Amino acid sequence: MRSKGIRRFFEILVGEFRGLIKLNLLFCAFILPTAAIFLLGLFGFHNEIALIVSLAAAFPVGGAVVAYVFCLTKMLRDEPGYLWEDFRRKFKENKRQAAVPGILCAAFVYAQIYLWGPVLFGGGSINAIWLIPGIGFLLVFGMIAPYFFLQIAYIELETKKIIINSVLISFSNALRSFLGAVMGGVIWVAFFLLLPESLVVVPVLLVFGFSFSLLLVLMWVWPPVNKLFSIEETLKDRREG
């Protein structure tokens, strides 16, 4: 019988380590163009234009997230697969539906960097009025977003329906959603809080950080999605049929 929970997490961490690195590097190839353009603007190089161009460059990010989520959940399901082919196929199938959500997610991340920038980069402080809402928005985003991309990866539904489902599933499984958001974000929060000293670990994050954090998220949020939509049972029936 397949292991579950934290034991399964460490089994994947050890047994699929090379696959996790490959997925991480593949995902970085999709996000680095938009991130690089955004950073140029952040540090004063035609910042308004750079922001617009960076968001336009984020159009493949949503499809890459869907493909990433699909490959990692295959690992959680202990289903054999061809990593490159699975990623390519899922990206191709879902890049259109996930394009706008991917751009909106990039915009959200960039907005958070602007909000917290004075604290992270300038040694300043954030207005207390924005402190609690800022943390709250981060948590809500982290709780809902995984369900959205999971559904695109496995369920054929209209985007509007997926958004509604994501909110409902997230808050009906609030503890799991919260733990997934917190555990998945902890290394990134630590990285930003420890700047500039933490810059030394950037190569590690680019090689492995996204896989580590997303796997932690999926460990919590995959079970309710799988149970609600009977995903594994449906896939098994298709294989046997």
Task: Provide a descriptive summary of the structure in words.
By secondary structure, the chain is mainly alpha-helical. It has one domain (19-240). It has ten helices and no strands. Helix 1 packs across helix 9.
What attributes characterize this protein structure?
241 residues; mainly alpha; 0% strand; globular
Brief characterization of the structure:
Helices cover 83% and strands 0% of the residues. With 241 residues, it is mostly helical.
Write the layout of secondary structure elements.
Blueprint: H1 5-15, H2 17-42, H3 47-56, H4 61-76, H5 83-120, H6 128-154, H7 159-172, H8 174-193, H9 202-229, H10 231-240
Helix pairs in contact: 1-9, 2-3, 2-4, 2-5, 2-9, 4-5, 4-6, 4-9, 5-6, 6-7, 6-8, 6-9, 7-8, 8-9
Count of extended strands: 0
Please tell me the total number of domains. Answer: 1
Shape: globular
Report the biggest beta sheet as strand number plus sense, adding barrel if it closes.
Answer: none
- Helix count from the secondary structure assignment: 10
- Poorly predicted regions are none
Secondary-structure element sequence? HHHHHHHHHH
C-alpha-based Rg, rounded = 18 Å
